[in-house]
Amino acid sequence: MGRVLSLYRSSVGKKILMSVTGVVFVFFVIAHMVGNLKAFMGPDHFDEYAHFLREIGEPIFPYGVLLWVFRIVLLGCLAIHALFALQTWWTNRAARPVKYAKGLQPEESTFASRNMRWGGIVLFLFVVAHLLHFTTGQLHPDFVPGAAFRNLVLGFQEQWVAGLYIGVMFVLGLHLYHGVWSSFQTLGLNHPGYNRYRRPLAALVAIVVFLGFAAVPVAVLTGTLSLGGRG
Ligand code: HEM
Questions:
Q1: Atom of ligand 1 nearest to the CA of 123
Q2: Is residue 104 scored above 50 in pLDDT?
Q3: Rounded distance, CA 22 to CA 183, Å?
Q4: CA-to-CA distance for 160 and 146, rounded, in angstroms?
Q5: According to the CATH classification, is domain 13-95+110-221 in 1.20.120.140?
Q6: In whole angstroms, what separates CA 38 from the centre of its chain?
């Protein structure tokens, strides 16, 4: 317990916990992106996949239970990630009440790193709205429980909604770019032999995630994905 408390209090401990929870999100985001791309394999395939997510872990776990375990782990990670982000923000403000003058930011500062907190806030608000849109349906124009493909296509047929998703995926890409780079450093991959790969690797993750997620709303906007009379 003492060890856990001192990890919590130290700023290195906070960074490690932020990195570890961030890595959990990176795996979730990549798995979710790959899952979404199944929409290109057709409505039946996509709906079957959405159903499979609820059956995952059966028969060891009852229907839907393992999905709830994943949800609780993700929520726990979100709580830790957000709490430490807020604390770091607060401590930095107290330590440096005057903003850096333009051009005098720390050496490793990039547009992405300077905007982590805004990115985090946008992503948090997005996830809340996104759950109400595609999971529970309150923000959807015509939600039918279980009809995942239909909900997806109808949801993105509203052009501004598809545009908003694409914009948020860009913000996600930027957040991941700095987050992945920074966690390589925190989690000990800060080795002279590997350092030159850290930025390109972080950029690769960011670009793949942005393009992979944006593909679905773009495909609905261009008519590549449609209900084809099945609506
Ligand atoms: C274009 C981008 C995205 C699309 C098309 C999309 C699509 C979907 C769909 C269709 C569902 C409902 C699945 C079902 O209930 O069967 C879902 C659930 C979810 N999405 Fe996304 N998503 C996108 C981006 C994201 C991002 C960037 C995040 C997180 C940062 C995210 C987090 C979630 C979460 C947490 C759930 C609920 C999973 C659950 O608990 O059942 N999504 N998404």
A1: 30
A2: no
A3: 8
A4: 24
A5: no
A6: 18
Q: Which of 26, 49, 51, 135 to mutate to test the pocket of ligand 1 (most atoms within 8 A of CB)?
A: 135
Q: Which atom of ligand 1 is nearest to the CA of 217?
A: 1
CA dihedral 112, 81, 127, 148 (to 10 degrees): 110
What per-residue confidence (pLDDT) applies to 194? 76
Question: For residue 67, which amino acid is it?
Answer: L
* pLDDT band per the 50, 70, 90 thresholds, residue 190: low
Closest ligand 1 atom number to CA of residue 169: 27
Gap from CA of 32 to ligand 1 centroid (Å): 7
Please work out whether the CB of residue 71 comes within 6 Å of at least one atom of ligand 1: yes
Q: Report CA(89)–ligand 1 centroid distance (Å).
A: 28
This prediction has a pTM of 0.90
> Which pair of structure tokens corresponds to residue 14?
């906070």
Query: pLDDT tens digit string along 210-225?
Result: 999 999 999 999 999 9
How much of the chain exceeds pLDDT 90, in percent?
Answer: 67
- How many whole angstroms separate alpha carbon 89 and alpha carbon 86? 5
Cα separation of 9 and 22, whole Å? Answer: 19
Query: Could you give the CA distance from residue 77 to residue 210 in angstroms, rounded to a whole number?
Result: 22
Q: What is the pLDDT of residues 21-70, one digit of tens each?
A: 999 999 999 999 999 999 999 999 999 999 999 898 888 999 889 999 99
